Structure formats: C-alpha cells, structure tokens
Amino acid sequence: MVAFADAELFYQHRVHPMRAAFLLIALWWVVGWAQEPPIQWLQRAQRAEETLAIAGVRVVEMRTGRTTRRIEEQFWRQGARAERIEVLAPPERRGEVLLYNAERWVVIRPNTKEAYEMPRLPLQGAQLLKLAVTLVRSGVVLAEMLPEVAVAGRSCVGVRLTLAQATLKNDEPPRPLFPATVTLWIDKETGFALRREVSLDNGVPVMRVEVKRVELNPRLPPELFTLPSDVVVRPLGGVYATVEEAQPSVRFPIRTPSYLPAGTTLERVIVQPRLSGQVVVLHYRTPQARFSIFQAHKNRPAEFGGRRRRARSHIHFWQSGDYWFAIVGNLPKAEIERIAQSLNASTTGR
Amino acid sequence: MDCKRCERQIWAYVEGQLAPVQVHALEAHLRECSHCQRQLEAARVAYRALRRLPRRRAPADLSARVRRQIAEMPARSSFGWSRLWRRVALAPALALLAVVAWWGWHMQQQPPFSDANTDADTAEALVELHEQLELADWSPSPTPSYFISTGYTR
Predict the structure, then answer these.
(1) Measured between CB atoms, does B15 come within 8 Å of chain A?
(2) Which of A71, A237, A329 is facing B24, going by the closest CB pair?
(3) A240 burial class (0-12, 13-18, 19+ CB within 10 angstroms)?
(4) Has residue A178 been placed in a domain?
C-alpha cells in the first residue's frame, strides 16, 4: 500500500525528460561560467585586445633597481588594427603622439611637421596573451584565478600566471621566455585586461599597467589614426632594427659576436649618448632568453671588468683593446662566456 | 635637456656636427625654449656672416715683414708691475688648467655605461637598462620602449 502510494506520487510529480535536460544544461552553464578556467579568460582577453574599440587613460609604472618610471597616456584603440596614444606624463614628453596604423608605429612630436617611424616592436598585448595561452596549455606556466576586484570602476576577474621554474641556476637549460609572474585583471563584461602586473624575479611587481578611465565603443573617426598630410616621416634616431642601419650614427665600428646561440634574433640596436661617449646596445632574443650586449669605444683603457649574477641575469663585463663590452641576460653562464670570446675574436680580427 | 647644455651644442648643431639623437634632443628643447631659440638665431646669423666674409690670401712677404717689425721694436725695461702680475697669475692659471685636464682625462677613464665609479654600480646600471628593455616588451603600450630609446626626459 505504501509502495503504491509512493509510485503514484512519483508519477504525479515526475519531471519531463526534456525539461530535466534543459535544467541540467542550464545548471552546467551557470556552474561552468562561475568556474570559467583561466585559459578561457586569457582567450577572451586576447579577443578583446584584437577586436575591441576602446578609449581611456592608462598609467605605466616600471621599477628597475633604483629607478622608477611613470608614464601616463590617453589612448584610443580600434582593436589590433589601429591605435592612437597621446602622452600626458612625464611633463617633458607631454603632447607626443604615437600612432599605429597600417602595421607601423609612428611618433609625432608637438608643434613639428616631422614624424618618426619606430622600428618593429617585439611584442604587443595580443601576442603576449596568445603566448600565455600556449604556455599554460603546455604546463610551462601555471594559471590561477584571483578574487574579483574593481578596476576603473568595472568588475574584473584576476588571473595570475606563474612560470613553473622561475629561478635561473648555473648550467641548467634556460627557462622559457616569459616573466616570472604576470597578473591580469580582466573586465568581466568586455574581456579587456584593465590592469597588468609583471614581475621578473621574485613575485614583486616591477611593471604595472593600469587603465584609470575607460570608454567603451567610443567614436573613432579615421583621422584619429591618420598622419596629417603635411608631415614628413623619418626613421626614429637612436633605435634601429639592424647594425647596418645604426652604424652611420656611431663614431666607431660596431662589433658583433661571431657566435650566437641557435635561434637568436636581434631585436633592436640602441645608440645612447653618454657623458663619456656613445654606448651601443645590441638587444637579442633566443627562444628561451633575452640578452643585451653593450659596447663603447675608448682610446685610453682603464681597469674595467668582472662577473656578477642576479637572480635571473648573468652579467659579464670586460675590456678588449679600445672597446668596453658587457653582456647581461638570462642565458647560462657558459653561453655568455662563449659569446664574449667571439666578440674578442671579432675585435682582433679587424 | 637644459639651456646650459643646449647652448654648448648650438654651434655644433649649426655646423651640422651633432649625432641624430642629439639633434632630436636639442630640437625638442628649442621648440619649448624661446631663450635658446634666440641663441640659435644669433649663432646662425653669426655663422652666415662668417661664411659670407671674403677669403683673401696673405701677402707672400707678410711673415718676413712682421719679423722685421718685431726686431725693430725698442726693448722693454727689465722690471714692470704688469709683467710681475702676469708672472704671479701664471701659476694659478696653470694649476687650473692642470685640474681641468685631469678632470677631462678622468672622465675618459670612466666606464662609459655609467657615470658611477664602481663596478657594482656599472653592473647595476647595465642590468637596469636590460630589464627596462625586457619589461617594455611585455607592456601593451609601446611608449616605454620608445622612451627607453629616446630618453625619458628631454
């Protein structure tokens, strides 16, 4: 009797199979959204970077050693296709405009009819996110979600990316080319990363990029991204893509190493005027590391040399004939020494 | 760049002897400084005036005539206050010259990557610059990269 009553009750209140399926799907979607894995947030951020029309004000702060740099700028973005940046601070650089259009960056300085084309830039926001997705998938970078916070008045989820093996030890293979930690705060509505923190060493952020004011789908007239017609474009002095381009502005022959690790590419050549002469920086990148070769020419050599090591960089500096050299980077020590020897050989070979 | 440095470089600029980076820095300063603009204009006027001066060859016997006139000049008295003063002033002037020469030589000896004196400071400066380059590449904005190449201040 009791069993019969239960069965009747069951049939009276039974749930239609289709309805149950819908309920299950909805439940799965809600739970799934709430626990959206970090990799999906990274992909959303990448898509937003590539497609979103957005404007605002952002602040970049970089702290290296004893130096802290702060840049404030207004920006207008049309996805990854076009961008305009107007510098607000530091005051000495206020009013300079950086324009990205037709796959090149051009700088316009205020009150001039000249613009300067910047050499190709190694990484952009979207490429960084794409790289992060690849490294998270391969397990080289670990990703974790952080509690929500508000950035520029908008609700953001936090994603922290940590390199699985962050410290550089002697004689071990170099780690992948990625900062020790990158933390992103991604706008829940649009997917745009409104704050980023990067640390190279020990988790202490050394670069923070934060959007302070944001405007979604702003009016972006084409002239915003177009150079005025009467402006003459010249190459930007001081930074070059190749040694050959840099050489005419340097008063001594630039030395290049005859040995470089496999897969090394030259990212840029920087020529810096210093009180005691010009310094040339060759900034290289390998699939796993970055390193810089510094060189200057002096007529009267003095004692100068040594080896040092920081948590993630080896530093080797020495003098060879009339040249000062230094190599800094997160390459293994043996590789740095091999490059140094090849630089000496190139010096004596000339 | 400040006015003092700008004034030091103005003649090299007028004569087209500055490196492109220095030209950019100087021009940026000139755009904002009316004082230096006037200095530049004055230097240009003087430079043009000098260029316009006619070039004449000295007479062939000029050297012989000068020597002859010097030989014919009456000899000075062996003592005079002005001559004494010149001799007294010579010593500090030479000392000052020696100090300036030493300072110039000393500056040449500094590792060019840093204005600091020690290896540790030089190493630190190199690492800072390398890390700035590395950080700039992770920035979504190209501005840090641009500023590292051209200097944060103008």
Answers:
(1) no
(2) A237
(3) buried
(4) yes
Across the interface, do B115 and A274 touch by the CB < 8 Å criterion?
A: yes
The total number of residues written for chain A in this structure: 350
Task: With beta carbons under 8 A apart, name residues in chain B contacting A272.
Answer: 21
pLDDT in tens, A229-266: 888 888 888 888 899 999 998 989 999 999 999 989 99
CATH of the domain at A215: 2.50.20.10
Question: Residue A55 to residues A109, A215, A224, B119: CA-CA distances in angstroms?
Answer: 21, 5, 12, 45
Question: ipTM score of the complex?
Answer: 0.77
Q: Closest to A60 (Cβ–Cβ): which among B112, B143, B153? A: B143
Answer yes or no: do A74 and A142 share one domain.
Answer: yes
Task: Report the chain B residue with the minimal C-alpha distance to residue A285.
Answer: B134
Residues A84 and A97: their CA atoms lie apart, in Å, by: 7
Contact: A310, B127; criterion CB under 8 Å:
yes
